[in-house]
Design brief:
mainly alpha, 2 domains, two-stranded antiparallel ribbon, elongated
């Protein structure tokens, strides 16, 4: 086992995060769990080592608390509360083995208490964060209308990690604050104008596009064709 408790436990929890029974958890929702666990580890470490601001409320640590025990307890308890139930035995065994390498005594016991406090604080912050919501994509038809999203694989295929739109962010208020404005309605004058412009200027045999608009100064090829809007 390596001597860096933080990287040790990042490696230990990784397989537990990505497994849901015999299936594999998608990458994006896995990152939510990685972030939750790592925040608990971070707060436990800052309580003992110091140097940076805690995420949420600071955790109190007695002088001399063992940081390895704190990291192990923080990662283990947070992970155990969030990963799939099929991974409980794996986490229990890893934790027992890891803390068994740390000498018994007040330093170890105090470190475990710091880790427990950090884990419970993060889990409290993430209570009702939407990660456990059940979200089913509603597909209106097997032949989508113009402008309607068409899922890859048809209506029987659920989009991957569709839950993430409902998960409480870790730092921002709402992810929609970075969302660009949507396209204009299909029956609007703006949509019609933009469609006609793209059709007339983008077609390979356009009669309105100038030679300068057609020729790329880099390669001499049709610029519109290169960006995939020629029709």
């Amino acid at each position: 086992m390596a001597q860096n408790a933080i990287t040790d436990w990042a490696a230990i929890v990784a397989p537990a995060i990505t497994k849901i029974g015999s299936a594999t958890r998608p990458p994006a929702s896995s990152e939510v769990l990685h972030a939750t666990i790592n925040l608990a580890v971070y707060n436990a470490t800052m309580a003992i080592v110091g140097g940076y601001q805690a995420y949420g409320a600071a955790i109190h640590a007695l002088r001399g608390s063992d940081v390895r025990a704190a990291v192990a307890a923080a990662a283990y308890i947070t992970a155990r509360a969030r990963v799939d139930s099929s991974q409980m035995g794996y986490l229990d065994g890893q934790y027992e083995t890891y803390v068994g390498t740390i000498p018994n005594g007040p330093s170890k016991n105090n470190g475990v208490q710091v880790g427990e406090a950090a884990a419970m604080a993060i889990l409290a912050l993430r209570t009702n964060d939407g990660f456990s919501n059940m979200v089913h994509y509603e597909c209106s038809s097997s032949t989508p209308a113009p402008g309607e999203f068409e899922p890859n694989g048809g209506c029987g295929t659920q989009p991957v990690d569709q839950i993430l739109a409902q998960v409480t962010p870790f730092t921002m208020i709402d992810p929609s604050c970075f969302r660009p404005g949507g396209p204009p309605p299909l029956n609007s004058q703006r949509y019609t104008r933009d469609f006609i412009e793209t059709r007339d200027y983008g077609r390979s045999d356009s009669s309105v596009r100038t030679p300068e608009q057609t020729t790329s100064p880099i390669s001499g090829r049709n610029m519109l064709t290169q960006v995939g809007i020629a029709i």
